[in-house]
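Dear all,

This email documents one entry for the complex benchmark we are building for the journal club exercise. For each entry we list the sequence lines for every component of the assembly. Then comes the predicted three-dimensional structure of the complex as a token string, followed by one or two observations. Please use this as the template for your own entries, and keep the labels exactly as they appear.
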Amino acid sequence: MSDHEAPATEAPEDVENAPEDADKARQIAELEDAWRRTAAELDNFRKRCARDVVRGREQERAAVATSWLPVLDNLERALEHASSDPDAVVEGVRAVLAQAVGVLADLGFPRRDDNGRAFDPAVHEAVSTVSGAGLVPGTVAQVVRPGYGPDDKILRPAAVVVATRAS
Amino acid sequence: MSDHEAPATEAPEDVENAPEDADKARQIAELEDAWRRTAAELDNFRKRCARDVVRGREQERAAVATSWLPVLDNLERALEHASSDPDAVVEGVRAVLAQAVGVLADLGFPRRDDNGRAFDPAVHEAVSTVSGAGLVPGTVAQVVRPGYGPDDKILRPAAVVVATRAS
């Protein structure tokens, strides 16, 4: 923060018995100066703010990217056993997937479980419909591709099959 | 942007032949007003800037997180064949790893290839040393864990084994 001090550089008080004219001229000069300094500060601040926003984004990008490095490391580790033991790879990759889902949750975007929920176009993307016994019309019958993020901050809506009344 | 117009609300010119005192008093009132408005604008701008930085970070976090969703989708897809064909899983996971490396590169953090490069503590983290025929002392003999990001914007240094002179 720069040293903006509007209250401290208050307009000068009238000085009793001083020649009115000279006093007012001084007051005008001081006010002009105070005003110009504040305007210059506003100008500087605009420029700095634009830089702060850019830098904030860069920091965030790096931080989020960093949170994915362990996922990549473990994916590579899982593949190291590829030739000797493919089954071990499958186990390892399952663990990595769970880890990746955890990273997204930590970033504020937990994986959604929309199965059986009432269909809501705000958080669901209908890819097809299905009808059948045991299905409640207007609910999500199947999640084709999971969504991420809470209802009020959806990162990606779930692609779902919606149950409809049999026609 | 709000309507900051410092140049437009310039201090009033002296009006010829008008009573000097009343003129100066008006000038003072106008200057005080202009100054106070600029100061208020500066204050508002400070608050808005803080909000802009926070919002910029949130947008960046969501954008970067979104770029990883295809990696998760493909990881899941690769695992769908797990029981029937473990070898296909391995192939699929290799492709996902390459995709993940691509996501990091797109974010500005390409995977580094530090093998054989001169050891540089700014971009390398030495985890051990090795000496032997064919190894150039002071170079990276082996990358234990890859680094990401260009030299001037390292996301994570590479963990490396450094070649040393045989003792």
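Observations: Confidence is low (pLDDT under 50) at residues 1-11 of chain A. The longest strand of chain A covers residues 124-130.
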